[in-house]
C-alpha cells in the first residue's frame, strides 16, 4: 500500500515483497506450490511497476490446479533487461474464460511511463511474462483525474435521480386525474382511483427522500460528519 501511488519502485523491493507473498502461499498450499525467486539484482538502479509481481502470482494461483501430485512451479529471474515470471500450466477445468484484466492493468501502467511493452508467451506447457526493467527516476503518479472522474460519476448519479423523480411526478400529475375521470365516468360508487393514487404517491415520497438528500447520500454525509467529529476529539 505504501508503494501504490508510485509509477516505479526498486526491483529489489518488489522481489522482497514477492518472496514474502510466496511464503504465505507456500504455507497455504504446502507441497502444492514451489517457487524460485532470484535473490540478487544485477543493477540496484533497476525498477519495475509496483505490485506487478503480485498480480502475476495471483493469476498463476487462480488459473491452475494446485496439488501435491501436480504442484505449481513458479520461477522469477532476470534475463537481458527483463524480469521473467513463468509457471507451468495445469489449468482448472471449471474456470471461466480469463478476462486478462491483470495483464492489461500491468501493460497500461507500463504504457504510461515507457515505450516498453510486456511480453506474454504461452506454449500450453509454460506461461511466461517478460517485464521490462527500467531505470528512470521514481515519481508519484497523478491521481487528480481519478478524483475528478469520481466526482463526475456522483454528480451524474445525482442528476439521474432528480430526473427520475421529476419524470415520475409529471406522470403522476397527468395519469392520476385521468384515472379519476375514468372512475367517475364508469363506476363512481366504487372509487378505486384511491388505490393507485396512494400507492403511487407513497412511492413518490420515498423517491423524493432519496433524490433530495435523505437516502444514501444523506447516510454518506452523516458517516463523514461522525468520522470528522471523532477525529477532532
Topology summary:
Blueprint (H helix, E strand, L loop, with lengths): L8 E2 H19 L3 E5 L9 E2 L3 H12 L8 E8 L2 E7 L12 H13 L5 E4 L3 E7 L11 H43 L7 H18 L4 H17 L1
CATH A-level architecture of the largest domain: 2-Layer Sandwich
CATH class of the largest domain: Alpha Beta
* Average pLDDT rating: 81
Number of domains: 2
Secondary structure: helix percent: 40-55%
Largest sheet: 5 strands, mixed
Report the count of strand segments: 7
The CATH superfamily name of the largest domain is Histidine kinase-like ATPase, C-terminal domain
Keywords:
single chain, 233 residues, alpha+beta, Heat Shock Protein 90, 2 domains, two-stranded antiparallel sheet, 6 helices, 52% helix
Explain this structure:
The chain has helices at residues 11-29, 52-63, 101-113, 144-186, 194-211, 216-232, and strands at residues 9-10, 33-37, 47-48, 72-79, 82-88, 119-122, 126-132. The protein has 233 residues and is α+β, with helices and mostly antiparallel strands. It starts with 8 loop residues before the first strand and ends with a helix. The chain has two domains: 9-132, Heat Shock Protein 90 (2-Layer Sandwich); 144-232. The protein is built from six helices and seven strands, in the order βαββαββαββααα. The model has no long low-confidence stretch (mean pLDDT 81).
Amino acid at each position: 500500500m505504501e508503494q501504490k501511488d508510485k509509477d516505479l519502485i526498486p526491483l529489489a523491493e518488489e522481489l522482497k515483497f514477492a518472496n514474502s507473498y510466496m511464503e504465505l502461499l507456500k504455507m497455504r498450499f504446502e507441497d502444492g506450490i514451489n517457487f524460485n525467486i532470484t535473490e540478487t539484482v544485477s543493477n540496484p538502479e533497476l525498477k519495475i511497476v509496483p505490485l506487478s509481481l503480485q498480480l502475476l502470482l495471483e493469476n498463476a494461483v487462480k488459473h491452475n490446479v494446485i496439488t501435491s501430485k501436480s504442484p505449481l512451479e513458479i520461477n522469477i529471474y532476470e534475463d537481458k533487461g527483463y524480469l521473467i515470471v513463468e509457471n507451468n500450466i495445469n489449468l482448472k477445468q471449471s474456470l471461466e474464460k480469463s478476462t486478462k484484466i491483470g495483464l492489461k492493468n500491468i501493460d497500461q501502467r507500463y504504457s504510461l511511463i515507457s515505450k516498453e511493452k510486456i511480453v506474454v508467451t504461452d506454449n500450453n506447457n509454460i506461461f511466461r511474462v517478460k517485464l521490462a526493467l527500467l531505470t528512470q527516476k521514481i515519481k508519484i503518479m497523478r491521481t487528480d483525474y481519478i478524483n475528478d472522474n469520481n466526482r463526475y460519476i456522483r454528480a451524474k448519479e445525482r442528476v439521474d435521480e432528480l430526473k427520475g423523480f421529476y419524470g415520475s411526478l409529471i406522470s403522476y400529475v397527468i395519469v392520476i386525474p385521468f384515472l379519476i375521470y375514468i372512475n367517475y365516468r364508469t363506476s363512481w360508487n366504487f372509487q378505486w382511483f384511491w388505490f393507485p393514487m396512494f400507492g403511487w404517491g407513497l412511492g413518490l415520497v420515498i423517491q423524493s427522500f432519496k433524490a433530495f438528500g435523505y437516502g444514501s447520500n444523506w447516510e454518506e454525509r452523516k458517516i463523514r460528519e461522525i468520522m470528522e467529529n471523532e477525529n477532532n476529539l
